[in-house]
Protein 1
Amino acid sequence: MREKRRYILVRILPYGFMPDRKDLYLAVIEAATSLWGDVATGLAQPAVVFCDEGHAIVRCRRGTEGDIATALATVTAIADERVALRTVATSGTIRALKRRIRPARPLEETGEVVIGEDSFTTYRYPRQKVDLIKKGTMHQKSLFFTREDLEER
Amino acid sequence: MKATDACVCPYPAGDSTLARMALEARELGFDSIVVIGEGDGEPRDLRILRGVVISASSQKEAIRQVRKPAVRAADVVFVNAGDTAFNRAAAAVEEVHVIRNIHAARRGAFDHVAARTAADRGTAVDISLYPIIGFRGRRRQTALQRYADILGLHRRYDFPLTISSGARSILEQRSVREIHGLCGLFGMTEDEVTCALSSIGRLIEPYRPVRVVSE
């Protein structure tokens, strides 16, 4: 008989970062194994079934979703890029979770700003949020401001 | 104050401004945060408390630092934990609100004497989530052991606990729900987490008998 599963919807921060599904899976497995060990992680059977629009859906066995959600809170990097995975909801179906996805797309107006000696590209998001991505580096340095913070500079 | 993140370090110490961290904290279920270090601005929909951290090698040094005007102006005074004698003394200093960095102290450095003093004086011990989120392997195991020891003493002597993310970035902040899960790793119950998240308010405005100031 097919086992019951649970699906966890997570939002990926920073906005605009689109990880490869396999890299995300490896990060989740590393976090879960490090926290709960091989046995518990193996029994929980975590897998990434969806990764798009700044969100991901992680599948696990029913009854282990609390443990996997805790492990997701300890993910700090995906493929050497600093990230955070914010649990949004847990459900028994992928379709129910996909209905809850609210992609955070940058507003039209992008710009440039210089802070100290560094030049940053600004991406504005709803709720006055502004992400600053440093130009010309492989592992990009990011700053997280608000619109008011930028206007004060 | 129902849910307070007891320590965040905004830009320039970290990569996120105070306003942005406040915005994220609000979305994550907090109604107040304690800010260590600089940070401009006063967000509208979240209470910001100013905190200061004292790092001292001796009790005398700690008392000297506590009496500085900058420290007196702060809402919340933290002291980094040290050895057993230091922690016993720090718990007894009236101006100290919270003993932090307990995960970095030796096992037993915060003992039953310090716990009893902390309970009598209303001094809290901080549970930082940073070692649980950011560390791996033996360092995280050590932190979890320390926190389990502190929790045992808390249950016996009933001194306050606070919970902090120690975040320097919005990427290091965690939601109230995630904090419940992370604190469950060393045995904290839902009620204990809820109580610890709200304890900063009781620390800065403790329950005291009513005093008649004029007749």
Protein 2
Amino acid sequence: MISASFLIGSSIGDYDLLDCIGEGAFGTVFRGTHIPTGTGVAVKVLRLGATLEEVREFENEAQLLARLTGTTNVVELLDSQTTSVTNPRLLGSAVPFPIQFHVMELADRSLDYLLAHRDKIPWTERILHYRNVALGVHQMHLRDIVHRDLKSSNCLLFSRPRHVVETKVSDLGRARDLTQASGAQLSSYSIGRGDPRFAPPEFLWMQGIDQGQAHRCSDLYGLGSLLFEVATGQGLTGIALQPRLGIIAADLRLPSSRWPVKYRSRIPEIRNWFDVAYQVFAAELPASIRTEAVALVRQLCDPDPDRRTPYTRAGNSTVPNNDLNWIVRRIDILGKLLTTISQGRHS
Amino acid sequence: MTLLNTVLDVNGAFTMQLGTSPAVPSSADMSHAHLVSYPAVAVADLITLQSRIPAFRKSQIVDPGHERRIAYETHEREGIVRQARRLKEYAPESVTTVARLAQALLLTGSRDEAAIEAREVFRLHAREALEKYKAASEMLSWNAPSLYVAAMVLAGSGKASEAEVLLSKTHGRTGPLNLIYAALAEQRRDHAEALARLSSSVDPETASFRGYLLLRLGRFGEAIHNLRIATRGGSPSLAVLMNLAYTHAALGYPEKAVRSAREAVATFPLNREASSALCAYLSAVGEWDAASSEAERSMAASGGYDPKFSLILSQALLAKGDLHAGIRVLRRSVQVPSSLVESGPLADAEGTLAFLEWRAGSRSRSSSTDVVLRLLRGFGGGSIYLARVYSEMLDRIGDFGDLPVIKDRLEKQTDAETVLPLTVKIGLLAADFERATEDARRWTSASPLDPRAAGTAIILLSDAMGDSGRAAHLGLDALKRMPGNSGLRNDVAYALVFAGHLDLAREVIRMTDDATAPLVATRGLIELAAGNVSKGLQYYDDAARLGGTKGQDHADPGEFVSMLRIYEAVSIHRLGLADRPEVEAGLAELRIPKSLEDKYMVGMLRPAAERAGMAWPGD
């Protein structure tokens, strides 16, 4: 991969690129300045030599962020452009080459950085960050957009006046607009992409499908996994399934026509495999929210995607497909439990 | 009579007798019932996805799923590792960030680098522990998730022993850390140490693991207590249900074992292990039809061509006495294109088919041996099952074939306990009956649900070692666990006769309505011991007619009859009936054919004959 880091110190469009603050699978993020106003911004530059699929995903991200403008908990897109730069040092000639970039509001850092020292972060604050992310995903789902790659490194923190810190969902590269026909290959949905330590188990068996409810359910898993990460600093799937990678690999050596049945047959076992991870999780939680938090993660991360939403006894979903208010309410209960106990201690 | 239902069992696919020949498909056994270890599997499978990806070969049809996965791994991994490195650079002293990097590196195949970072997690934790301990004297349970990840990464990088050492130095291990610590001891088969490492915690996971370890140590009563605790969570795991079934069977309650196995199948209807265990327990209680139905159901659920289920179905058919139907099932299963099925079970099915065809007389012994040896060489050293099939074809003292080499290879892959059936067989082929008896007793303890283990120990104790009392005791214990196994009943009745418990022998043999040649002969033995000499001899003649008839599972009916007559003569001497006029003619005619002279079965009988003062024919 050709890194775009040579751009540090140069300008593209109306933006000065000051330093590199992040590198992902298909791009580099710079801290920059909007030259006319002097405002700090984040500039995400698509890597040079990106594949057609990556270009499509990059453009898709801009379109989706534009559709989500005005939402409180999704990162705001300020600009998106294609420009050209020349760099004789890199290419050996002064021929200009195109650069695609997005400009977004500048965050202080991402949530994973905060979790690096999570023992210093009070639980009430952690739950608040988590609630903000859940709200962001809720806002996306209400607009028929699914994220498909939720993890702490894709959640950004913004300092606001009066010591308020906002948390917003970012990195919509793998997001999907459910109102539009898919532009990607079907197989890219089966595996889901992203980091396997945080991916829903069905993606590891390549059972993701390009269907609205399936996408929403993968986000539910992402939210459950994020609460696990907020508590432990590690990925739920990584802890639960790393010891089983041999089994997964063996299942995937079967002809792909047999993978769906294989995955369905594994679901009860996978539930058991997750139990150890839930023990790790429970040990990290304050006693006041332990039962409630484990129950929430258990539900959101059920290996059977259809069981991640609340169901009535008759098997009907009790909430509209795109409404995640029920999760926000349950997070509020966690917050309430934390503050009640804490107040009780003080009194 | 004797007829050794021993020595030849091939992991229970069928029970055979008399070394070479007359194998009567008798009751199936519970060899498909086995312990399920949750954490042991976990640690053993700590390997990266990447290392398991089959290399592309030229002219190979490319499955788009596989192609996608490989593209995914090469494309995405750089980003995952880069992100983890950045995070570590930001907080190099945080065990969280270092553990994340370690796991990212392992997932993308950089095992050595992953191990370095995992060690760093332990180092940072130790330092932090020291500081905090000095500051607040508080005991520690923090960093558990990161330590858990680091231990898994080390084990996954092939450094399990190092993970174990590092965990041993970690203070304040929480439940999950203790689980992985115990699992590492279990991985090197130190069950007692693993058990000691589990805290007194009563959570279902720990109880399940403790139950498994207690089973491995043969402490069934304590095991069942722990396994019951493990079921209290409401949704017991497959391992718990299957181990519960195993414990019930081992304690001599096969009906309860069936119940637990049925629950496992109901909860995990598509699980192959659960289904095969249920078939085994159903067979153990003599419910052959139910066992066949379950095998057929599972086979249909798995697409109709899973060779593992073909083996189980053929076993059920053999147990019902239909050798040819069993062969037909296996023939169908080996015709499935190998690309559609797993190579291990397919090799097992093919080897079993070759073996059964020999038993049915439609294939020569050498051809069957060639097939099995080819499979053993082709399948990474072969399975223990296949090695046992091969060992069944060796029956002459001094003729070890490739068995010692195969045993050594399998022992390196597994452990000494797993290859005990092969160790016993090598002892028999070396005519070292004392050693074989000791090994057979260990085998019986290690595999309490394997009728072949118990049968071999019974016959060795009774004939070669002359300790029929102990043989009968061991046999009655085994019979409690496997009451439906008519072959085992035959062996136990045989030992009981020479231990002087005639009524009990009669009772044991009455419980089976099988009319196989060995059982008919054993009825004759009981009559002889009861003093009904003419009636006893009549039973022996009936058994000889039955066993000598084509259609029974005897590769060589003539050999079977000769063997039967040797057993008859030795038994007459052991019972002190050699001077009775009714037996005079038969004893005078006794000859040991040259083809039987060096059979280890005959060798095992010789010490019994010597003790009874019998002049060995031909000496």
